[in-house]
Design a protein that fits this description.
By secondary structure, the protein is α/β, with parallel strands linked by helices. It has 19 helices and 12 strands.
């Protein structure tokens, strides 16, 4: 997503002086044209609201202020915690206030391992980092491990050595040869110090198949590490894990010391807050608001997708023109709205012919959202094939339907009742199916983004 900036009070004085020299009104159309922006965005600039960085620079240069850095508000109180360079958390963060308070209380209490779960792009990493900021007064040393970094080994021994070395602990040749010794040293270090460790994308070190079980660690030493970390009598350090899959080897007998939290999309009000934070006008009387509300609803508050879209609206060629963006891409949202409305009012609950393109309607979505979703589908296909088939087959449903509707699709794949339930359980463990209780019965549905990808995969799925 494009970065956003806001002007300082002194910066506005500089701009105002330059504007007067050029004889321009504050909302001059010629100024907007030269800056390639809208009057609404220029109005936000004057109100010291954040706007797209490229547009911010254009506004400054259009009145002859080339040192735009002098105009930016660099108030440290509004900046992200300076102790760490975060992957996802930034000044565009919005919402989840109550959840942050609840989870922070758990981590400050007896919860040693907090596991944040949900589909890709739903905001797990950003929430983990936001919690790290929330806990900054807890005098913990912050450390982050990202398993998406393919340049680093992810087996337990390699990671343990890396952590201990970064923590200035000497590693002997004997240590490197003895994984049990490394485990003991790492747990000892965590017991004797106050660390807050964020482990990102744990799903990438998990494996799964119907014979061995789903979501076990590729390296069994990771399972031993978590068990040992949870089993020690006392430990001041805490670990926050993000994962698309629920790791099954976290011992249930230590359930007082770990907690799982599933993450869903932003609420309607949070969606508007996000758009506003990224520089778009969302006031009640703004013509932008209805379009943005419809976009947020179609994507079910998916933070990554909405931030990508906000960045596209704020950048060339739209420069904050939401109506222009809608005229270009709004038909994709209308397609989703039409299908959902037909399911509600006409009872047309299923269609394999829906052409949903929420994951790929723009270049930004293809580059930032679709790629990540495709990795999820590929991993599912390789690890649990029947679950992949079930996810694709059930994409015909436009809304929540009874569980047996989903399971019936696996009958064509020669799956008995037990295999059907195992396949569905794997989808549940990977949060690729959402459950709703309707009339005392469990109904299943897919997130709109998941359905968009699954419908495309369904086209190439061939029954044996």
């Amino acid at each position: 997503m494009a970065a956003s900036l806001r002007a300082s009070e002194s910066g506005l004085e500089i701009i105002d002086m330059a504007r007067r020299k050029k004889g321009l009104n504050k909302q001059a159309s010629s100024w907007c044209n030269n800056a390639q922006t809208s009057e609404a965005t220029l109005k936000r600039f004057w109100r010291r609201k954040p706007i797209n960085q490229e547009v911010f620079v254009n506004i400054c240069e259009a009145v002859g202020v080339n040192n735009w850095e002098d105009i930016v508000d660099n108030n440290p109180l509004s900046q992200t915690d300076s102790r760490a360079e975060f992957f996802a958390f930034d000044d565009a963060w919005v919402g989840r206030k109550d959840l942050i308070a609840e989870l922070a209380e758990k981590v400050q209490g007896s919860c040693r391992v907090l596991i944040l779960l949900g589909i890709t792009g739903i905001g797990k990493t950003a929430l983990a980092e936001r919690l790290a900021v929330q806990l900054q007064d807890d005098s913990r040393k912050f450390h982050q491990e990202n398993f998406e970094n393919e340049q680093q080994a992810s087996d337990f021994a390699s990671v343990a050595i890396r952590w201990l070395e970064e923590w200035k602990e000497p590693i002997t040749p004997e240590d490197r040869k003895d994984t049990q010794r490394l485990l003991n040293r790492l747990v000892k270090q965590l017991r004797e110090n106050r660390y807050l460790v964020v482990i990102d994308s744990l799903e990438l070190i998990l494996k799964g198949n119907e014979e061995a079980g789903w979501n076990g660690f590729q390296d069994d030493w990771w399972a031993k590490f978590f068990e040992c970390f949870l089993a020690v009598e006392s430990c001041p350090s805490r670990i926050i894990v993000t994962s698309q899959d629920l790791p099954e080897q976290i011992p249930a007998r230590y359930q007082n010391f770990w907690y799982c939290q599933e993450l869903r999309g932003l609420t309607a009000s949070e969606q508007l807050d996000l758009f506003e934070k990224t520089g778009l006008e969302v006031e009640l009387d703004s013509p932008n608001r209805p379009y943005l509300e419809r976009i947020g609803a179609a994507y079910e508050g998916h933070p990554l997708a909405l931030r990508v879209i906000a960045g596209e609206i704020g950048s060339k060629p739209f420069y904050g023109n939401v109506a222009g963006y809608w005229n270009k891409y709004g038909q994709e949202i209308e397609e989703v709205e039409k299908a959902i409305e037909e399911a509600k009012t006409k009872g047309i609950t299923a269609s394999a012919d829906d052409n949903w393109r929420l994951d790929r309607s723009t270049r930004g979505l293809r580059k930032n959202v679709r790629v990540r979703l495709e990795k999820t589908f590929e991993r599912l296909k390789n690890d649990v094939l029947n679950s992949y088939r079930l996810l694709c087959e059930a994409s015909v449903y436009r809304c929540a339907v009874p569980e047996e509707f989903w399971l019936s699709h696996l009958e064509d794949w020669d799956c008995d009742e037990e295999k059907q339930k195992l396949a569905l359980d794997a989808l549940r463990d990977r949060f690729l199916v959402e459950e709703e209780l309707i009339d005392d019965e469990i109904y299943l549905r897919q997130h709109n983004l998941i359905r968009s990808v699954a419908l495309e995969h369904l086209k190439s799925l061939t029954v044996r």
